[in-house]
Amino acid sequence: xxxxxxxxxxxxxxxxxxxxxxxxxxxxxxxxxxxxxxxxxxxxxxxxxxxxxxxxxxxxxxxxxxxxxxxxxxxxxxxxxxxxxxxxxxxxxxxxxxxxxxxxxxxxxxxxxxxxxxxxxxxxxxxxxxxxxxxxxxxxxxxxxxxxxxxxxxxxxxxxxxxxxxxxxxxxxxxxxxxxxxxxxxxxxxxxxxxxxxxxxxxxxxxxxxxxxxxxxxxxxxxxxxxxxxxxxxxxxxxxxxxxxxxxxxxxxxxxxxxxxxxxxxxxxxxxxxxxxxxxxxxxxxxxxxxxxxxxxxxxxxxxxxxxxxxxxxxxxxxxxxxxxxxxxxxxxxxxxxxxxxx
Length: 343
Description:
By secondary structure, the protein is of the alpha/beta class. It has helices at residues 12-54, 59-76, 84-97, 102-109, 113-120, 126-139, 143-151, 154-160, 167-170, 173-182, 200-209, 211-218, 265-280, 300-306, 325-342, and strands at residues 164-165, 186-188, 222-233, 236-246, 251-257, 290-295, 314-320. The protein is built from 15 helices and seven strands. Helix 14 (300-306) links the parallel strand 6 and strand 7. The longest helix has 43 residues, at 12-54. Residues 181-331 form the YhcG PDDEXK nuclease domain.
């Protein structure tokens, strides 16, 4: 039978989307392999630390033993980082967590060694150790990102943030519950490596450039469709900053980026975009599109009032550059003042 498929040139936009998706697949595979190797290494460190603890080697009388052990082990395993200092750290690692429950031990076993040393230096309660371990594993935090988070008491700011959305009023009960699990009240964008506030388009470009890391920050299940996604209707074009698809929610997810604090008029614009997405692009077997407005700061009560009579599922979340909120707001305010002076 003759193939009737019509070939056509691949547009630059289609190629870039294909490239980004292929990179995401390969990076995900590489990450899984790295995780397995890391878990094996951490398990070895745990067992070595246990040996030192059981033999009650202390720095006063055990220093020479540990130094000799380091020399002999490094001659056999030069790539493992078996310096005397690291051997003592292994003992400290074992002693710090061997009395904790399995949940804590499993959490730290997944972390790179440098991340573990950093967390140990803060002597956190077990629940916060698990919190930071989960953040590192699910979002791919570098050691510098973790350090900034620890310094800014990131775990405390997350706990005090209230989720601002209308999911329960606009989605079926089960989907609303799952959407509340998927979407957070605050997102950590420290990986964009910004030393000063970014304008919306610049922030968008950095997120696209590091889309794999951003997807890890969003959580599992997200697939990137594109940025500045065009919606053509009634001889006009409208553009969504970032568009994703979530596999388990079976919904497109539109994200709008705002450099300042939340404003009620943002909701109307997002509501319009969601109407266009559902009218023009939503497949019959898909659920309604969901909108997330990502801004530097939000007032929960103001968001609640703005969403009161909106019938499309919309959430409002804050982003952080892993700086204290008052510092971030100060930087954003300075940027706005500079912009006004230029005008």
